Amino acid sequence: MKKIFTYLPLAVLVISGCGIPQDSSPVSIQSTLPENTTPQTDAQVSEDSRTFTIYLLDADSRLVPVARELSGSELRITDLINELIANPTEAESSMALSTAVPVGLSLDGVSVDGVVATINFEPGGLEIVEGEQLTEALAQIVWSVTESGDVTSLIISINSEVKTWPTPDEGDQNSLTRSQFISYAPQVSVVG
């Protein structure tokens, strides 16, 4: 009991010294906080954005799936093609990923009939690329467009003329599927 009476005056002294002085009238207080105190992130995701996969090439010309995000609720084939034409991000470049899809590629229209998409390009893009770069570009386009499973086959035309395209696994074709580019398929890690 004696301890309580010893500490009670000390507690009253401490509490009375911690008070906030009263003003005789209202006073405006200047804030030291920045005006916008809402936390911001570099990649805020809205309800209308979507994540999708495109395929880039590694140093061994193997397809590598990479995630991309765009605003809007509906993924379109034109979005996929535009992402393949664009340069890889800084992070993708640091992992030695690249695209064989030519920068000059210009989309002129897309139509989908069931599981078959017909992609029409303007002249001066895909048809002027040759050899390995052409088959790599075709592999990227086919794997990226067929990723969702809604489309399983592509017909690629130039200036509305359907073309026959080289495939490494099944010869020249005018209807392109993933199986024709299986030699570019992403590496699968085997757990032993």
Name the descriptors.
two-stranded antiparallel ribbon; globular; four-stranded mixed β-sheet; alpha+beta; 192 residues
What would you say this structure looks like, in words?
This protein has helices at residues 2-17, 77-85, 90-94, 131-145; strands spanning 49-57, 63-71, 107-113, 116-121, 153-158, 161-162. The longest helix has 16 residues, at 2-17. The chain has one domain (49-184). It is globular, with a radius of gyration of 31 Å. It contains four helices and six strands. α2 (77-85) runs antiparallel to α4 (131-145). The model is unreliable at 10-16 and 27-46 (pLDDT under 50). The protein is an alpha+beta fold and 192 residues long. The protein has a four-stranded mixed β-sheet, with helices on one face. A two-stranded antiparallel ribbon has the order 1-2.
